[in-house]
Structures are given as structure tokens and as C-alpha cells.
């Protein structure tokens, strides 16, 4: 057969070839070339049957599918053709067969299936644990990667690392948990552990996921932070501890989420799953009540139970040994963040703001959760400390405008959550890493964010992609070095192998002295740095023409100078520099820090305490200058530490891929997956492999397959007369001599054969195929001869023998089966016939609902051995009987309780009836109505009793209470007594109220008329009740005293102003304004408009607003004098209207406020009237000196008298002392006065005993029967009689009714004692007050 001298593959456009063609939906699809013409067009048929036409020149440049297109390739290194299309095709094919794992050399590709697969069982863990050293490699699986890492660790390979990466929703978190599950299952816990460290490691995941994961558009449980977990192993290769390091938590999510995304899970878990007592304490409601949760339009996640997740988290807290105080502190911090988010600000000019009045409750709730003062919290949110005057200047408080205060509020929320998350990781480490000193090696698990490219990329994406660049460099370096190590070990020449890494891209980002990160930090430390100046410095530093350090990985946008592009290993990403500096600072003001350190919550104090490792945004002194510690600088340091840890370990790579955006199973989005494979650096690994020898085949495998290529070589191999390495060399030399492969395309190492490209392997396969075809021709001729002979001489006879034998055996087996079935069926039917008959009878009785028939049917089963079905039916029947009896008993007890009006029993029975499903029965509804009626009757009756006890109570609503009492059926005699008292009190109430209105409005005519009416009423009382009229002077004593003091104040005012006017007339001459003080004072001084404005002034906290209200009052008054008079009158009304305002006790200081709006202070007026009179200042000097001491004493006494007059009103104790001497006398008048001093208006308002007659009114009051305080109505005798306990056994209900009756009797005795206290002494009338 002629050889192929060029050693190249067939042209792609040749008819019948399979190639990978570009596809809009699936990126690449396999297609067969149907027709092709050089220079024309080629028609291709895709694997789904559709056809596509492409230019022949384009088809010629496409990649061939290769011979392994239809094979199930678990490890894609074995492909005979490496290309984007071939990698994607095999990953897709395995995914659609539910094989979500595929290997590419030492790299594991895991495609998220978005469904639960039964491939994570303990049995599989043990299977992969034992298959590490098997002859055939195990199927790709995350357990296989974990098993390889663990085996390397236990075999002396040192510390290991499993590096998991991928975009959001690719399954990184679940993959990391499976790795940890494998390690904890096979390694367990050390013998010294008091609690299983393995359990604690697994329980740390729910805690970290609750606080660090959230629902995004791409993933319902997306990790919003990077995580490095070091699982430590001791000498015995058992787990002794674990250490967790977190990276770059997405704090911006706390205050703002993309539409249809959620905040971190823990907020929703707390609101749904927390105990009611905790939610009440923290003032928590639903997610829709909080601004940080309700703006995205998503508060719930399908297939995610927040309540159940909360229970799992709390269980994990206990396993991780969190204290109750710590979990309470965490809840308080979370609640404080939610309440802080509800605080809104109203602008007050351009440079000031205030908390919106509607948000004061949220401010108070946040302060209560943080245990700080609301004023302190408000001040911290509305202001900041600014250093003025240079380095030696002082700190000045500067108010913030509305926008700045809102940003400060969000900064507080982010700072609290970010610091709490860092503390949480440290606290988890304290539990997991107790035995760290006994650690020898570790297995690190890295779960970190994948490469991100969005329409708008900012500082967060730069940090994430920077981390991926670092990891990709480590990945490339490891793969390249592994290749070199293998070539060196195999003795294969590798001097010409070169590979370009991504070091220049890393120099652009982190290079020294001025990389991207350094430039951002430099701008942040400049006082006038901005995003625009940062973008300009980038261009000046890195542009490829005039830049100080040109870098080809940097490109500036020509139309928008704020945009720049970085060419990452996975492709170019355009970043928007706007917001870079603010996000890099992430500062927290000193005012917020100081406020947080005063918190009463220990956890908040811990989070904000001063420590040497201050968070981002804190000033750090370097070289005598204070520099800002930034997010970028911190993250860069963390990455350096991570890379140091990774370089000290043996890496194992897992690349997670998201199959589709819709998160549905069995859907493979080719374009999406291809992009992720690129971002994961998979094609970089293939590129490294292609830079050397792409295919590596062990000697034995190669010799077994290709020994047929040499003459008699296969026979020598089978007889083991030639070594495997010699067989490989002879086969390759033969293929080279035949022109199928070139000599430089292959090498034979110590254990493997190396082929340069896929073309060489394809050519070798073609050469083998020609050899196989020759051998196959010989085999086929022999086989055909054997088949003909067998068909002619043996087939018919052997077939007949087999058929006869099968027929006999079938007949025999069939008869035996029929006989056995007959016997078994008869046995079971006879055995179960009796049970079935009884079961049918019992079900019929249950259908009829007849108790006697059911009981009789149950008794039929006595002594029988019951089947499972019979036991079930009997249990149902007994349950039915029990429920019927219980319901009947409850209904009977309710009927008895209704007949006896037993309220406690009715309440208990109604609740029990609701539990039994009887709530809709008429009798139960009647009982509920009766209970509500009796409760309402009690309330009305109590109010009427209070009115009889003190006829000033409810005096304005007595008529409504009487109407309700009549509707409820309260005793008519009792209502009549209340009506009698009310009729007697009503005219006195009108007089009292009239006098009160006069005092409140400083209406002189109303005051004088009211005093006259009071005097008239006192005379009528003397005539009606007997005795001297002076005995009833305590009637309206408070109102009368207030009225007299108001009149006295008006007279004093006239005297004071008269002195002032006289002084001015002598010195300056009189003017109209000062002379109108003698105007007629008989009218009303205050109007509702005046009072409304004065009330507003006295309660207004804002000085600016208060000045505005004063001006408005002045305009309403019309003159300054009228304004001052209104102010004085308003103050008198507040001082003496003791029934309406607070009354200072005798001796209590009345504060003097120079800023008061009241105008002329009475004390000040008195002083001026004494010291500014003409008589005092016209004296001779010696006369003044002679009388100075006498005048001083005189002034002091006058001031004390005026002060007492202006500010003191009798206290309750003093009033009692004023009236007590009169009430101690004997006779009708004295008794009436004493009773009236107690505060009553009516002498007939108290409950009367059985005295024959009230002497003052001639009316007789007698209570018939006893008042039942339990039921709220009169009982005129026993309305029913119970069974005696000695005759018949009492039920529970009857026992409760007996107890209820005893309580009623006790209350009747208490009522009689109360009536005795309230009864009249010898029937004498009470006094007025």
C-alpha cells in the first residue's frame, strides 16, 4: 500500500470528512462534508440533520473531528484532535448522559447539572478511596480528585491543595463541600478530639453560607466571597483542625441589590425563623418592611426554606460552640443593620439635613438594637469630624447634607456587616483549629470567584479578575513545570519548548513601583485625588507610545477617557474608572467609630475596637506620614499570602462550568460553556501541552496496539521475546520508513511514547489500519469456511435437539407451577376468609355510624390473630368512637354551662370545641356570644361602680354607659341609682365647667360670673342639705382658688404696669402705647388662635421655628403690649388650670428661662415696679442709705409673697389639710364637708347600705340582692342546683362549676366589704368638692 509521504491529515473539505463548524447557539457543532469544490462552496450536514453551506476556503480551515468523535472520552487528553470544538463536543455529550465530570489530564471539569444525582454516596467515597492505585484509572469524579490529594498527603507528598474556580452558579460551593465530605469521611477526627472536628468542619458551611451567600440572577446560592480552607492532619493522618481565610466579601450587596436578586440569606432567615420573642425584642417584621431587602423585588427563593435554614444555622452554631451571648449579639447586629437602612433624611438647605419625622421610630429601633442613645446615633449619621488648620489644627464637627448622610448610613451598615463577617470567620477558626499545634500537613480547599465580564465592570471586577490572573499564572506555571519535569524524567529532549505566560498582565496590575493597584492607592492618599486624575495617570504610565512604562495589555478608550481595557488571559475586559477611588477607600468616619465603641452590645464593641490590623479605610502611618489602608492594598496582600500557601502545596485543579443561565437540567448552552472553559484556562493547558508532545502513551499500551505495524513484531511481543520499548521503537521506525510520520514527530521515553500532534497519531492509526486490513482478510477466509461447515453438518441437528429439550422442560415446569399455585391460593383464601368477613362487617357498621354495631363488630375480633389490615380497621373504628364520645361530652358540658352562666367553664369548653372542629355548631357559637356579652357587661358595670365611688369619673359619658347597661340587661334598680346620682351632679358639673373655661381663657366676666354661680350653689346646698352655707365652701375649691388667683394676677398686673407708666411719664413723656393699660379688662384675653400659637411655641424644639412662631403671634396681637399681655395670660392659664396641666408642688422650683417667649416675667415686673418708682429714685442719697436695709427686707418679703402667689398652688396633701379641720366636726354639715373634701360632687353618689333614709335628700336607696362580680349581673338567688357529690360521681365540668360558684361567693363577700366602706355614716350627706 502506498504511504503518505507528507505526514499530514486529509484536507478538511474532502467529501465525507467530519469537521467542527461555528454555530450560533452551540458555538461548535460536528458536521459532515457532503459536497465540496475547490474555490467554490461546500455543503455540510450537521449531526442534527440540518444542512449548512460555507465557502470551501473556510471549510478547509476548520478543525477535523477526529476518529474519537463518537467515543466516550472520560479523559480528553486521549483525543486524537485537540480543538475548541472537540473539547466542547465531548463535554456536552457526557453532560447529556448525566456524566457531569470530565478530565483533561490532571484537570477536572465539573458541569453543574441543576439537579440532584445519586453519585455522592458513602459507598462511592470508599470506592474512590481504594481505586487510587488501580490499574485502570477511575471515572472522573470530584471524589477522585479528593482521593488523589489525600493519597498524596498520606504517601509523603506533603501538603496538598484543591483549587476550585468558576463563575457564579457553576457549583463551586457544592464542589468544595463534596471535597470536604470526602476528607471528613475517610480521615474522620483525631482520637483526642472532644467533639468530632470533622462534624464541626461540615457544620461551618451552613454558617458561612448564611452570612456570605445570596440569591443572584445566575445562582440561588451564590458565594459572594472567596474562601480558603486548610484541613489540618496529624501524625496518624487524621483530621485535627481546620483554618478558614476569607477574601473580598461583596459589601455593596448589603445596601443595594440588582433587581430580582436578594441580600445575604441570613437576613431573611432571621426574619422568618427567629423565635417570636426575639423578633419582638428586636422589633423585626417581614422582609417587605426593610429598605435593604424590599427594593430588588425578590424576597423569596424557590426551593429555599429560610425557616429550615435558620434552624440548621442555629444547630451549626451550637456545634461550633458559639455562646448564647454571641448568637444574641449577631442577631442584634443584623437587626440594627435592617433598622439603620430604614432611616431617611430630609434636606435642610445645601449643607445640612435631619432625620425624617416618619423615620424616628426606625432610628429608635436601630439605637435600641445597638444599645446606644438615639441622639448619639443621629449625630453620628448627620455629622463628621474634620481637622481644621493643618497638621496642628483642631477637630471640628461638620454637618452633612442629605446625600452625604445617606452615604454615611450605608457605610455604617457595610462596616458592621463586614467586620462581623471577619469576626465570624475568626470565631469559627477558634473552634476548628484548637489542635493546630499537632498539625503536620494539610489539604487546602480554595473556593474563589471566577473570571467576571459584565456590560459595566468596576473596581470589584478588577479585583476578582486580578485574583484569577494570579491563579492562572500559578496554574500555567504548574502545568508547564510539570511538563518539563516529565520530559526530563523520561529522557525526552525539551530545549526547544517555549511558552508565553501572563506575567506582563500581572505587571500591569500589581507591578512596582506603579501598577494599577499602586496608582489607585496613590490617588486615594492624595487629598485632591479623583477618578478622572487616576484614569489620566493610567494613560501617562502605560500607553504604548508615550507612556513611562508601556504595557501592551493596557488600552484606553478613545471616546470615553474614563474607560480602559485590560487584556486578561481569558480576553479583554473594559473597566469604568468612575467610583474606583471611593470603593477602594471604603472608609468609616471617626464619628461612627466612636459611637459604635459606646455600644452596650459586647459584639459591636469587639467589632469596632482599636486593633493593629485595622480594616480598609483606616489611616496607617508609614515614614511619619499617615496613609490610608485601602481595599486594593489589603486584597493584594491577601493574594500574596494565598500564593505563598499554594506554592507550598501540590495543586489539584477543578474547573466548574455553569451549563445554562435558566438553571434547568439537561440543557447545555454551548456558547456559555465555551466562554467558561476559556476563562478557566483550560485551553491554556492544552496550548502548553501542544507546545511539546501532545500525546503520551505507555509502552505496554502502545506496543499492544501498534506491534502489528512491524513484520512478525506482534508474534515477538506476544511471546515476550522482545521488550516493550524495543517493540515501540521498531513500530515507529517502520511507520517512519513508510512515510506516515516524520522522525521529529515522535520520541520514545523511559515509560511512554510521545507524539507531537494529533496529525501524527491520526497518521499512525491509518498505517495500523492498513496492516489490520491485511490480517483481517486472512481471518475472514478461515472464519467463512468454518461457518459453512457448521451450517451444513451440525446446525439443523443441534437446533432440533435444543428445541425438544426446551419444550419438555417448559411443560414440566408449567405443570408444577400450576399445582403449587393452586395449593397456595387455597391456603391463603381459607386463612383470610374469616378476617375479611369481620372486616367487612366492621366497615359497614362504621358507614352506618352506629356505636352499638361498631362495638359489637370489634368484640367479634376478640381471641383472633389479627392481620395488619384488621388492626388498621379496628384502630380506625376505636378512634371514631372516641371522637364521637368526646364531642358529645363537650356539647353536653357547654349546654350545662350555658344554663348555669358559668363563664370560666364556657371559655374552656369553647376552646376545646374549636380544637375538636365544633366551632361552627350553633351551641358553641351561642356560648361564644354569651361569653363576650358577659365580659362587656363586666366592663360597663365596673365603670358605673367607679362613677358611684367617685362621681367625677366618666361623668361626661354616663349617659352612653347607661344606654349600654340597659341594652346588656344590667339590673334596673342599679341603673336607676346611677341616673339619680347623675341628675344630682349634672348642674354642679355645668357650673364647674363654666368656671374652668373662664380660667383657661382668662375671661374676667366668665370668672366673676362663675364665682357668683358657685356662691349661689353653695347657698342652695346649705338649704337643701341643712347646716351653715360655709360648711360647703369646699365645693369647686380648686377652680375657685384658680379663679381668685387669676383676678389677683390681673390686679397685680395693673399695679405693676401703673408704676411703669408713671415712671415713663415723668422721664420721657407718655405715649399712646404705654397709656392704654387702663383699658377695659372685662373681656376674654385668650382666644383659641392665641392658645394654639402659644402651645406651638412652648413645645417647639427648634429655635428658628420658635422665633417664627413668636413673630406670628406678635402679628396676630397687633402690638407689643398686647403680645406681652397674651403671653402673661397664657402662662397664668397653664399655671392655675391644675385640672388640665401639671401643678408645681409647694416649694418646687419654677425654672426661669431668659429665652422664654412669655415676655415680661412677673417677678421681674415686681422688681421693676419697686426699684423704678419715682418715689424711690427722688429720695436724697442719705435717705436712701438710711432706709436701705429696711427696704431690702421689705423687698424680700414681697418677692416671696409674689413668688408664692404666681407659682404655688395647694398640693393634694395641703388641700386635705385645708379641709380637714372642718371635716373633723360632728353633725350633718361637718360630715358633708369631710366627704366632699374627698373629691366628690354628689352627696348621693356612693353606694348606700340598708340605712332607712338619707336625711339630706329624703331619698331611700337599698341594694336588693348581691352583685356577682364574676358574671357582671345581679343574682337574686340560686338559679340552679348541682348534684351532690356524695350521691353521684361528679364530672370534671361539674367540679369546675362548683369551684366557680365558690369564687362567686368569695367575690360577693368582698363586694359587701366594699359597700360597707362606701356607705354613709349614719345616713349623712357627703361634702362637695
Please give a handful of descriptors for the protein shown.
about 1350 residues; alpha+beta; seven-stranded mixed β-sheet; four-stranded antiparallel β-sheet; flat; disordered N terminus
Architecture overview:
- With 1329 residues, this protein is an alpha+beta fold.
- It is 54% helix and 10% strand.
- The protein has a 7-stranded mixed β-sheet with strand order 5-6-22-7-16-10-11, with helices on both faces. A 4-stranded antiparallel β-sheet has the order 1-2-3-4.
- Helix 34 packs antiparallel against helix 35.
Please specify the SSE layout and strand pairing.
Elements (H helix, E strand, L loop, with lengths): L17 E6 L3 E9 L5 E6 L4 E5 H5 L23 H13 L4 E4 L2 E6 L9 H9 L11 H13 L5 E6 L6 H16 L9 H16 E2 L7 E2 L2 E8 L5 E9 L17 H9 L2 H6 L9 H4 L11 H14 L4 H18 L3 E3 L5 E3 L4 H11 L3 H9 E6 L5 E6 L2 H31 L8 E7 L11 H32 L12 H8 L5 H10 L5 H12 L11 E3 L6 E6 L2 E6 L3 H6 L4 H8 L4 H6 L11 E4 L2 E4 L2 H17 L2 E9 L11 H10 L2 H10 L3 E4 H8 L6 H6 L5 H14 L8 E3 L3 E4 L2 H36 L1 H54 L2 H9 L8 H33 L2 H13 L6 H28 L8 H11 L3 H29 L3 H22 L11 H31 L4 H4 L12 H12 L3 H15 L2 H17 L25 H10 L2 H4 L3 H6 L1 H20 L4 H12 L4 H9 L29 E3 L4 E3 L16 H27 L11
Parallel strand pairs: 6-22, 7-16, 7-22
Antiparallel strand pairs: 1-2, 2-3, 3-4, 5-6, 8-9, 10-11, 10-16, 12-13, 14-15, 17-18, 18-19, 20-21, 23-25, 24-25, 26-27
Provide the gyration radius in Å: 50 Å
Count of helix runs: 48
Regions with pLDDT < 50 over 5+ consecutive residues?
1-11, 190-194, 611-618, 620-626, 1068-1080, 1142-1240, 1243-1289, 1319-1329
Instruction: Quote the distance from N terminus to C terminus.
Output: 135 Å
Strand fraction: 5-15%
Helix content: 40-55%
- Mean pLDDT reading: 78
Write down the overall geometry: flat
Strand order, biggest sheet?
A: 5-6-22-7-16-10-11
Query: What is the strand tally?
Result: 27
- Please give the largest β-sheet: 7 strands, mixed
